[in-house]
Amino acid sequence: MTGVVVDGVAKAFGATPVLRGVSLTAPAGTLTAVLGRSGCGKTTLLRIVAGFERLDAGTVTLHGRPVAGPDRALPPERRGIGYLTQEGSLFPHLTVAANVLFGLPWRERRRGGARVAALLEGVDLEPSLARRHPHELSGGQQQRVALARALAPEPAVVLLDEPFSSLDAGLRADTQRAVVKALAAAGATALLVTHDRGEALALADQVAVMRDGVVAQIDAPGAIYRDPVDPGVGALVGDAVLLDGRRDGAGSVSCALGVLAVRPDRQGRRGAAGPVRVLVRPEQIVVGAGDGGVRARVRSRDFRGPDASVELDLGDAAPGTEIVTARLPGDAAVAPGDDVTVTVRGAVTAYDA
C-alpha cells in the first residue's frame, strides 16, 4: 500500500511559480528524503502535504485517502500527520510530559504517564526526563521530545522539515539514529526535507531530488548516487568531477583522465559515439607513482582525518587547464608539488553533450 502520493502538484505565490508539477510516491512505512537547494520548493511541498498551504493544481493522497486537490483541502488536523520542524517548537512553559501529550484528548492526557514513558524510550530518552522543561535539555534531546510529541497521536504520516540542521555534528548523528529508529518502530511513512546530501543518503529508503520546482529524480540512495539522471543531479548528491569527453560507442570514453569504461544506462545501453560530459566520483580516482595512467601534479592536499581531498593538475602541456579532485585515504603519502600518475577505478557515467 502506498503511503504518500503527490501527483502533478503546482503552486505559485503571486506571479512566482514555486512547484511546477511535482510527482512522487512514498511507499508505506518508508522514509523518503526530499533533497534540494534553498528555493527549490521542498518546504512548500511539505507544507502542502501537511495542509498548511493550498495547492493550485494536482492531488495529494495519504494512505489511499485524497486530502488535497483543486476542489478539496482537508484541514491539517484531519490528515493524520505528525510534523517536526527545525526548531522542534516545544512549549517552554510545559514539562516534557505535557509537551508530549499536548495534542491528545484530555482524557488520554490525564492517564498519560505510561504513554509518555513509552514514547520517550522510543526516541532513546530516559523516562525520568518527563518532569523537566525544554530549557533543561540539550538541542538533540529537545528534537527527540518533539518527535515523541509528533508520534503520540500515532500518525500514519510524519513530516520532518530539516529537523537536524540546527544541531552540532555529534548531536546530529545521535539524534538522526534515534529518529529513524522511532519512525521505523512506529511504522510511519515519513517525508524528510533536507539540503544535506549526506543526511539524505544515509537516512532515507529513497531520495527525491528537487530542482526548479520539479522532482528531477527519485530512487534508492545507492542508485541515485551511482546513476544520476544528469550531471546536475550527480553534483547535488555527491562530490563530482565533470569533464568533457568523447564516447566511442563501444563502451568507452576518452577524456583528460584517459580512456575509461562507461557505465550502461538502465536499459543496458552505453550510448552512441559523440561528445559527452563525463562524471567521475573523487573516490574513483587512484593516485600513484609509476608509469601507468595519466600524469598529474598535486596542487593541494586537504586533510580530513580518515580521508584527504587532493587537487590534481592534469594540464601537462598547459598547467591549470584541467583540475580534478581525488579523495584518498587520510594517510596517503602525497604532498603539494608531487608528480604522480592517475587512474580511474570502475566505470564512469557519460551524458550526451
Explained architecture:
This protein has two domains: 2-231, P-loop containing nucleotide triphosphate hydrolases (Rossmann fold), CATH 3.40.50; 240-352, Nucleic acid-binding proteins (OB fold (Dihydrolipoamide Acetyltransferase, E2P)), CATH 2.40.50.140. It is globular. It has helices at 42-50, 96-101, 106-110, 113-122, 139-151, 169-186, 197-203, 221-226, 231-237, and strands at residues 2-13, 16-27, 31-35, 57-62, 65-69, 72-73, 81-84, 157-161, 189-194, 206-211, 214-219, 241-247, 252-255, 258-261, 274-280, 285-288, 294-303, 307-313, 323-329, 339-344, 349-352. Helices cover 23% and strands 37% of the residues. Helix 4 (113-122) crosses helix 5 and helix 5 (139-151) packs parallel to helix 6.
Write a brief caption for the model.
This protein has 353 residues and is α+β, with helices and mostly antiparallel strands.
Which structural traits does this protein have?
Rossmann fold, 37% strand, 6-stranded mixed β-sheet, 2 domains, 9 helices, 21 strands, alpha+beta, globular, 353 residues, OB fold (Dihydrolipoamide Acetyltransferase, E2P), 5-stranded antiparallel β-sheet
Main beta sheet strand tally, sense and closure: 6 strands, mixed
Beta-strand content estimate? 35-45%
User: What is the number of helices?
Assistant: 9
- Within CATH, the superfamily of the largest domain carries the name P-loop containing nucleotide triphosphate hydrolases
